[in-house]
Amino acid sequence: MNIKKKTVLAMIAAVILIAAAVFIFFIVSKKSDAQKSDFSKLSWTDAFSKLHGRISKEYAFTEWKGIEWQKLYEEYLEKIEAAQLKNDFEVYYTNLRKYLHEVPDGHVGMNNIREIDDKYIGGGFGLAAAKLDDGRIIITWVDESGPAWAAGIRTGAELIEWDGQPVTDAVVAVSTIFTSIPATEENLESKRLQYLVRAPISKQISIKFLNQKNSELQLVSITAYDDNKKSLTKNYPDSVVSDKLRNMIVGVEDPNPMPEAMVEKKTLNGNISYIKIWGEFDADLQETGKAQSTLELLRLAVQESIEEKSTGIILDLRNNLGGLDDMAADILGSFYSEKTFYEYQNVYNPATGERKIQPANPKTGSLALYIEPAKQCFNGRIIALINTKCVSSGEGIAMGIRNLPNGETLGFFGTNGSFGLSGAEAVMPGGLIVRWPSGQSLDENKNIQLDSRDGIGGVSPSIPIPMSFENAIRVSNGEDIELEEAIRILGVCSKILG
After folding, report:
1. For 122, 300, 343, 433, which has the most beta carbons within 10 A of its beta carbon?
2. SS3 for 490?
3. CATH classification number, 244-423+431-466+477-497, choose in 2.60.120.40, 3.90.226.10, 3.40.50.2000, 3.20.20.100
4. What is the pTM of this model?
């Protein structure tokens, strides 16, 4: 990448960060006290103790998720003390990540140090894997120039053993500490499968597998090599849905083109409107010098759909970065004909050490945030496409569509299950920044909504797509099965109504 291009991307990233106050996986999507502590000049152990003092007190879902903070503190303080004694930054870094990964919440996390990460996951074996709905784990992609292909492994092969273990046991043992924290069990399993095939470069393992149309099990040894992380692009959703904005924000090179705008619209199959929403914030993606209004773009797209008499709208929320809750509610106003409750915001107050519902509208004093109908509302059928990278306020839009009588959610998996009010952070030694949610989004009965508990949370697809053998292979090849199915459903409805 040349210097000019790097500068351009950095400028765009800065605009996005300033305009939206977002950062990968810990998106500031709610109105909250963005209190920042600086522990960077303390020793590693003192900084960890200070961090623990804050996060254990402020984290929004301690009781909801059953987090045993004292137990975690005792376990990881000992490890960080050992790292301090040996002056081993890598051990400090990895154990801080492990500590945070004990909390199943996509809004909890910290920035990566890729030089360290690559020591553990920098190598691949030239293959990708997926778990089917029938429980089998298969190889969905094999690099024809890699060691797996040379060893005779072919696409569609069933994995039986991985490095001497039954593959199901090997998957459960996979560490996911170098990626974002999964809030739900289905997201955790997906990430484990994604990182099963990652290893230190030069690590040798054995694989027992069964190729299609072959009755004999085969056992081979293969060695991890620097594949430029290619296998990570062959799993769902990375193989199907662009993650350009998220990758740009964290400085990961991504060959996908930049979205033209935060909201993109096109017409499919004659009379179906497709509207993609990348996040609930304003951004200047085309470097015009002025950030476009995401809400105005959405309302214009809906207006065009109404004028075109679209038979239905496909609202693509996959890989939605999140953003501002009031914008999410305003977006839903284009699909609601009546004023409808959206949420209470139960915010932590550092001065009192307690959470309290704050007014969503300071002008009127209303405690609740409502969906207010827009001037023009689409009342036809709506299908929202969702996945585990639809996070935070993006999940709120998915929830709003699902609750409509004419709305559906469709996908292989549900949304992220991380809907807390973010903003709290601490700067740690070594340039590490830890973030966590300190407030809660409550439903009309003042119960926590959407955040995961016991591995379940977020918005589930009302139209689930099966991860069959055929679908798993097609996904690795980059085919958008979810979009195809949504088009098919709306096309059938159009014919029936016609």
Report:
1. 343
2. helix
3. 3.90.226.10
4. 0.92
